[in-house]
Amino acid sequence: MSATNSPAAKSQSRFGSWFDHHIYSLVASAGRMLKKPWSTALTIGVMAVALALPLGLWVALANVERFAGDVQDARQISLFLKPEISLERAAALTDALRARADVAAVEHHTPEQGLAELRSTSGLGETISSLDGNPLPSLLVVSPSGDEALLAASLQQLPEADIVQHDAAWRERLDGWLRFGGRLAWVLAAMLGFGALLVVGNTVRLDIQQRTEEIGVLQLLGATDGFIRRPFLYLGLSYGVVAGALALALLTVADLSLRAPLAELARSYGSDFALQGFGPVAAIAIVIGAGVLGWIGAGLVTGHYLRQTRPTDT
């Protein structure tokens, strides 16, 4: 038996032919896209917008959640003591609260510290300097280790307590809106993703109609469905990958246009908040996901066509 007729050589030859056809299908799909620039641009543009809308909503929600601050900070309770409470008594109360099981940490802000912070951040330095004495009370910032609502109610009962600020209501409303926004993003992603799949499927269907005779000849010659389907799958994959990259480019342009005014607005509130987009890993995952979406759309349409036109034995 010659080396060229050995099972290993035949297997290697089949694999080489299979690999060559994959490369040819990929290159041919790119060539067909370039032959129809306007149709290609329209398909990719529609897909990119359909992908960019839910992705942009996800980015916006992530930034809003980050802007809302750390969850532990949002749970902090501000306990303003009565003005007549001395620093010694405030320090003793701080130590007593730190020993409680339902308290994670306590920060004691003296009236002098509060006045200095107010003078530096409010722009009322001259007015504050003209005051006789310090009207600010001691402030204890309490971080709960359990249910903050129960802790806030307990702190309100202390004889030294004057005002207890507990911002649970706004945080619960914000969490509710974020949950609603997340669900809305998933609904939009499903609807627009299905729309993008239909766009790819329709484009591939038109391409199939233009190659009906070629496909018929291949079927008569005994070509498998996988062999016939392969170029169209790579066509859908190419549409999806380019559309995913364009969607990321659109989101990057939107990010750059909004970053400067948002940073200026954040600085007016004393924050260094800045927009954050998708990282490299997320960006690659988006492009791959868009490519898979195009692949699936092309596969569904091509499979349906081949089932309708498969020759039958008579």
TrEMBL record:
<comment type="function">
    <text>Part of the ABC transporter FtsEX involved in cellular division.</text>
</comment>
<dbReference type="Pfam" id="PF18075">
    <property type="entry name" value="FtsX_ECD"/>
</dbReference>
<feature type="domain" description="ABC3 transporter permease C-terminal">
    <location>
        <begin position="187"/>
        <end position="303"/>
    </location>
</feature>
<keyword id="KW-0472">Membrane</keyword>
<feature type="transmembrane region" description="Helical">
    <location>
        <begin position="41"/>
        <end position="61"/>
    </location>
</feature>
<keyword id="KW-1133">Transmembrane helix</keyword>
<feature type="domain" description="FtsX extracellular">
    <location>
        <begin position="76"/>
        <end position="154"/>
    </location>
</feature>
<keyword id="KW-0131">Cell cycle</keyword>
<dbReference type="Pfam" id="PF02687">
    <property type="entry name" value="FtsX"/>
</dbReference>
<keyword id="KW-1003">Cell membrane</keyword>
<dbReference type="InterPro" id="IPR004513">
    <property type="entry name" value="FtsX"/>
</dbReference>
<keyword id="KW-0997">Cell inner membrane</keyword>
<feature type="transmembrane region" description="Helical">
    <location>
        <begin position="273"/>
        <end position="301"/>
    </location>
</feature>
<comment type="similarity">
    <text>Belongs to the ABC-4 integral membrane protein family. FtsX subfamily.</text>
</comment>
<dbReference type="InterPro" id="IPR003838">
    <property type="entry name" value="ABC3_permease_C"/>
</dbReference>
<comment type="subunit">
    <text>Forms a membrane-associated complex with FtsE.</text>
</comment>
<keyword id="KW-0132">Cell division</keyword>
<feature type="transmembrane region" description="Helical">
    <location>
        <begin position="184"/>
        <end position="204"/>
    </location>
</feature>
<keyword id="KW-0812">Transmembrane</keyword>
<feature type="transmembrane region" description="Helical">
    <location>
        <begin position="232"/>
        <end position="253"/>
    </location>
</feature>
<dbReference type="InterPro" id="IPR047590">
    <property type="entry name" value="FtsX_proteobact-type"/>
</dbReference>
<protein>
    <recommendedName>
        <fullName>Cell division protein FtsX</fullName>
    </recommendedName>
</protein>
<dbReference type="InterPro" id="IPR040690">
    <property type="entry name" value="FtsX_ECD"/>
</dbReference>
